[in-house]
């Protein structure tokens, strides 16, 4: 019998670099998701402090999603071509500055604009951090565990953000959370300067300016239409925004098809793992993030939950998701099989929430939320892995940007659909049930499609 040689240990300097990259990257993702979810439990206080009306309140919640979705793919491409550390540091410094503006804002417009800037800064941090992790960890078990840890920070950040914001608001003011998060962003910038190494693609490309403009403006129009549409989908401005989004996004596809150095190589959509990465992220947003985000509002209206009670309910889902994602990094399931399993378990959890608007049971709801958390964790770990393994070497940040763009668009569409479905139903309870049945169907279809895609690569 022939024994294989022992695996050579990494030099201490390389091991320290990997550890630092993973620590800073995970801390950045945790911070971004905490900041993303922070206003959820302090919206009444924030709106009162800024003098915001109903439309302003919607933008207080969704301004950061607009900034994220509109810039994630661009940020990832810039990181790969011009330096992942550089883009990360620009993003973390911008997040610190925008957080200070949020904390000191005297009116709704300034606050919302600062949240949009926070979204762009967060996009830079998310895409660059996963790109740096993929560069530091070679394909195989080490990268699977590292990307699973990164994916776990999504659930952890969503868990920690709302209660931290609520507690700080009780201690002082709703503004306090932005001072704290801004300070953490500044510390992360310093840590990045001292501990991160620069990396970029071996063959960097020139910036695809027409593609950047078409995609950014198209996604901005789409997200603005989805946000404004909650006040009335048939208004002239909303219809015009949807039309502009369709034209601009079609122009983006045409530009990328003809470009010699496209920001998004359209041939990637012929790769099953890339399709699974984008489709799975979109389905996760539609079937999990959207309905679960709106459920927090439903239980406050239907059952009189206090904001902290609603945050505690949401934390069941998000905290289980964080743990499940870390455990998923230790499994040997192929990425697409793990994604399909996560979506299937999430679909079962969605069905378990039927009837929650008419009759609340903590036991039954908690069991369903645990199922959704397990499914979310499996899916998040698989999506982080697929997003870097489904693209060419050196384009990991772009892969991360494309994946997360789909996730946040799916989440925004999911919330808009949830609001429309519940609002159009005869009763809120009936509408909520329709919402969860639809979410379960979408998740189940996503699971089937993830398995049906024939994989021709080792990464999926």
Automatic annotation (TrEMBL):
Coiled-coil ranges from the UniProt annotation: none
Membrane-protein topology: Multi-pass membrane protein
Chief location bin: membrane
Bilayer-spanning residue ranges: 20-38, 58-75, 87-114, 120-137, 149-171, 177-196, 208-226, 232-253, 274-298, 310-328, 340-362, 368-388, 408-428, 434-453
Source domain of life: Bacteria
PROSITE patterns the record matches: MFS
Keyword field contains Transmembrane: yes
Domain Major facilitator superfamily (MFS) profile: 21-458
Alphabetical keyword list: Membrane, Transmembrane, Transmembrane helix
Locations listed in the record: Cell membrane
Keyword Transmembrane helix: yes
Protein's name according to its UniProt entry: MFS transporter
Organism listed in the record: Microbispora corallina
Lineage, highest ranks first: Bacteria, Bacillati, Actinomycetota, Actinomycetes, Streptosporangiales
